[in-house]
Structure prediction request, 712 residues.
Amino acid sequence: MILKRKKRFLPAGLSILLCMTFMLYLPVLASEKGYPYDDPDLYYYNSREYNGEKLFQGTGTFKISDDDSSSAISELGVQIWSELNPTKGDLLQQDLYVTNASGLPNEESAKKAEKKVMKDEEYTYIKSAVLFTPPSQELRSNMLGSPQQFMTYVYPRNTKNQSDGNYEYTAEETTFAGYPAVITRNYAEEAMESGGYSIQCHGSIFLYVTDMPMPTVWFIQDAFLDDQTLTDKKQYEKLGPCYAALEIGYEYTGSTYGESENQAFLETKAREVFNASENDFKSLYNSYDKSITFNTKKTTDIKVNNKKPGSVHESVDTDADSKSGETALPIPEALAIAILGGAAALLGAGSGANDSDSKEKKNSRYQMKFKKDFGDNIKAGNQPVPVFARIVEITPEGNEIDRPDLSSMLTFNSSDFEIGEVITLGGYQQAMISAPKQAQDSGVLSISFSSDEGSFTNNITFRITGEPYIEYSGHKGTNQMYILGGSGKKLTMDCKAVDFPQPPIISVKGNYTEFLVEIEPLGENNYRIFVTDNSQKPENLEQLKKGFDVELSAVCEDETYPSSFTVIQCFEGMAADFWGKPKEIRGYKDENNEMAKTLIGFSLGIWNESEGVLDEVAPQDVEIHFEDELDIYKIIGMKISLDENSNLKHITNFVFQAETPYPSLTSVKGTLTATSKEYSYKSDMTLIPDIQQYSENFEKEFEACKKVIEVF
Prediction:
């Protein structure tokens, strides 16, 4: 009987054992299919990298090929995370979809079907029908993720928004190129007062490519704009599956033009032309319905199998220490037990511990240690720098034991820094990190001690800095400072050393005869620049301002960083502006056969003591004189008038013009003098002769002389 019973129950026992084995294997099989895209307890967003690995990217928007406008490509990256913050959670899975679309209506097909203008005996008509693929695809928010979503949420909004428009708007679900689709229709008729009738219809075909599913959460906000009362679970249930979409546009018209008294006839003909265009559109529609094809390839990378909803996660936010060295962060004992799946895993690093050892080891503490050989800043666009992390055990006696077995469970992650290959080095996990050239002012590096049961993460914030530089607080926040020439005054400008690891030693490069530059440190990377004027004011000013570039050298940790600021030396008085022309008055006619004009402007420079700058103003009541050494100006006449066309606040322009030509082969030196109040200006000028007129006069006199000689 016993043997019989064994024979009877052996198959049953084997079946139960196989079933249990299969059940144990089921979660692994399920995980190989990947995580769903509609789980409210998971998070779906895209990060640039994870633990030093570049992640899949792509929005799912179709991009038309530059080489072949009848084809398009779409890349969709889907990342599934355990937490909303990528620095605090785990990347569970990433999927990449690459879809190639071909046979699309392109530019060539659009040209073949573009508008045709035809003339009949009694009227002119326009007939057109075209399908095209827009280079700029419609926004995802205006298409949503399926035909059902479009008709439920987008269509009512569009109908409401276009209720006051000229077009009659409709939409319906359909199938196009083998995929579920929506076709929208904007229809309008218009009678033209000048004589004619136009009927137009245009819209879009939205194809929802079911080979490219998208996370439901990406569409929730746009779908439920008018209803925020639903729970997350209800929102997921109402939306259903979501997919990437491709837009194809279309348009067909029929219009007639003629005499206004024949309006009824023109309307009838317009409907005939429109019906013919509609038939052309249907023919194109059916043709592309068969020709458009999609080819999708999917890559799935599962990072964490069977993420448990009961797992424990904790993170701590810290700031990087301003000095190099190693810092320690305690791991809560209960969390460490959860991460390692039980207290037995927290026994010492050595093997073969007895029961008494085990009891002592239960009270050990654990720390995550972080080490670096630099301060709290990482330079943007610079070479990668190494950072180190490890797990250590602190025994009840206070002894520190290195745990390389636990250190190997550490991972590095950041959405702000680029993370290179992670290696094991001397009991540490080492990662090379760097900040991109275009970066924020700070970034977070996350170091996680994790397993399927939970995780402990240290989110370390670093300052991200650029190349060290000197920041000046000169005039209006610039690197410019003004000094008054000939005054002997000492003026100041503060500056600050920015992004230097240590306060630099700043010195002036070179010497300047016009002024003396001195620099005094004020503490905390702040400095004060003193500039003392050493110049003599010239008797006659040619310019009110003159700029000098002063070069500085900032030395820090054996590195030299050049910098410069500008000293603008100013003089009070009157100066003239010849607008880039020579200092001359032209005694000849221009190409318009008019006496040439010379434009000269005058400015006054007045020192503004409160602002520390020179104010340039347009002088009033200017007295101007011009004379030459031969008094030629008295013979030919000299007209000096205010330029009515100029309206400048800092300068007054005058026009100088000889009244008659000055025929000669040689120029004449002259003097220009201008005076306004207590200021004056004086400068040499030249009167340029009219050589051509001189030659003509000479020729006439020569001919006259010849006649006299011939007579006598």
About this structure: Confidence is low (pLDDT under 50) at residues 1-32, 342-356. The first strand starts at residue 43 and ends at 44.
